[in-house]
Amino acid sequence: MTSNLQLCNYTFPKGFAWGASTAAYQIEGGWDADGKGPNVWDTFTHQGGDRVFKNQTGDVACGSYTLWEEDLKCIKQLGLTHYRFSLSWSRLLPDGTTGFINQKGIDYYNKVIDDLLTNGIMPMVTLNHFDLPQALEDQGGWLSENIVGFFNKYAEFCFNTFGNRVKMWITINEPSIVAKYAYENGLHAPGIKESGTGAYQTAHNMIKAHAKAWHTYHLLFKEKQHGFVSLALNANWAEPLDPTSEADVKATERYLAFSLGWFAKPIFIDGDYPPLMKSSVAAKSKEQGYPSSRLPEFTKEEMQMIKGTADFFCLNYYTTRKIRHQEYAQARPSFQADEEVEEIKDPSWPISSIEWLAVVPWGIRKLLKHIKDTCNDPIIYITENGFAQSDPAPLEDAQRWEYFRQTLLEILKGIYIDKANVKGYFVWSLMDNFEWTEGYSKRFGLFHVDYNSSSLPRVPYTSASEYAKVVSSNRLPEPEKKLK
Ligand code: BGC
């Protein structure tokens, strides 16, 4: 094992993409500046109700709408080859439709894209990272099938406006999080609780919206613009709590089917949901007296339309779980009761300062292999990976860098030993930012942001200088300890 890596001298493949990621609502601020329309996170945070830490909002965030040049300095300081950011849909189209186009929004993103390119940095652009325009939410949001058409028009507008310069597109960020948190348990904006149906309906529309946008690109723009389109899927790696228990082994397969497989199988393989997911939801729905499964079905034409609609695989990896079979006796149907798993963090895994984020670097290698094996050996970009510190966070974050280093080492093993086709790695996040329900209490940045100072200064953590060394040399410093 070791020898393969030594052979490669801990060097990443030539042309490896080194990036960092952000998302519009988490960094931009300027929530109502220059004609921007409200999105669901503006509404959600403004309603208060202690759903977000200290009722904090993204109204100002890192101020990137006016401080883009400061962000650019950070990106240059790291020497990144790529920068991933998202477009605020309601900054460009205030009511979500092309009925009114906000030129100021176009100007802002034009500047970001042009500045990146002038500095030799490739933009990777996400069309929608959790912040649906409120006007579209008012018409049913992701729960309504109408969103497929709205999203397609928005995507077409973006390809048309920015596609002469942007070559890497991500349609939707982490559809499973939106499905489960925004429309099933209501913890995220818009806070809808439709237990047992919300997540499935949302995902169904998101998959169709993604696929339609992919076709629009390939039909109308690909020939001229030569870009690539995918979506970003988050996934935990998972292993049975008791590998000798058949129930736990099956539960682990179910867990993977209900997370990564839910989206990856239709999009990368055959246009349809994993059989384990279909059978579980159908069985529970029947027991509950539903006339048909709560998991919607794709028509034959839709399956045709969906399969193969990703030009590369975008993986957001943070953590791993041990899985135990668990039945939930609940009065009402729910995603959790359909899935029948209990997620467990092994006590030996360090916890970063965010409760769900157990640090398991080896999990990424297993996941890369799983994606290679189950998704037709795609080109993979790791579009997010990171570790949170709590506030206040020390600038010297040697422990956190150690987590990054171990993760990068596992990625090298994935590349050279397992032959996963990994082409890039993006840290979440370029700088500390609004961490959704955690507000500003958790810090994921390579750069520290001082929210108490009106100029919102960005200062590098130790991890930033260490990452810059890796980026510039395209290799990891050789570990001192012997590899296992
Ligand atoms: C999301 C980011 C988020 C990060 C850390 C990902 O799920 O895409 O927006 O900040 O994880 O929680």
TrEMBL record:
It catalyses: beta-D-galactosyl-(1<->1)-sphing-4-enine + H2O = sphing-4-enine + D-galactose; beta-D-galactosyl-(1<->1')-N-octadecanoylsphing-4-enine + H2O = N-octadecanoylsphing-4-enine + D-galactose; a beta-D-glucosyl-(1<->1')-N-acylsphing-4-enine + H2O = an N-acylsphing-4-enine + D-glucose; a beta-D-xylosyl-(1<->1')-N-acylsphing-4-enine + cholesterol = cholesteryl 3-beta-D-xyloside + an N-acylsphing-4-enine. One of its GO terms (biological process) is carbohydrate catabolic process. Keywords: Glycosidase, Hydrolase. SUPFAM superfamilies: (Trans)glycosidases (SSF51445). GO terms for molecular function: beta-galactosidase activity; beta-glucosidase activity; galactosylceramidase activity; glucosylceramidase activity. Gene3D superfamilies: Glycosidases (3.20.20.80). The keyword Signal does not apply. GO terms for cellular component: cytosol; membrane. Its EC number is 3.2.1.21, 3.2.1.45, 3.2.1.46. InterPro entries: GH, GH_1_N_CS, Glyco_hydro_1, Glyco_hydro_1_AS. It comes from the Eukaryota. The active site is at 384 (nucleophile). Coiled coil: none annotated. Belongs to the glycosyl hydrolase 1 family. Klotho subfamily. This is Cytosolic beta-glucosidase. It comes from Microcaecilia unicolor. The gene is LCTL.
